[in-house]
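Q&A log
Question type: sequence-to-structure
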Amino acid sequence: MTTIRTKRTGEHVFTAVNDRGASVEVGRAGQDGVFSPVELLLAAAAACVGITAEELVLRRTGTAPLVDATDVRPPGAHELDGVRIDVGIDMSALDDTARQELLDVVDRAVTALCTVTRTLKRSTAIDMVVAP
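Response status: OK
Response body:
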């Protein structure tokens, strides 16, 4: 089980720390020097896809994929309608068959192994406990 601890470190700023000592600053959207919670969600989705596809792409192209994640929602909405993931791969050295094979293997790997995108696709129950 993974637990991330967050602690208030400033006005509308929390520091999230994992059990290995890595940390990230989280704050309100638009606030300088921090990620918003939604930005962290997007970063997690993009990084999960990138990490899953990395070796497959590097082996075939010699370059790493560039992955962008974008939230899909109307302006001002407090809920995402979706997340768009764009994976950039330099396939200029590959023929059409090799390109299609790479696209297929990346899609299969991400569909099978990327925990974040798999969870977002099916949604997740949130159990929130407020303790004294």
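Response note: The radius of gyration is 18 Å.
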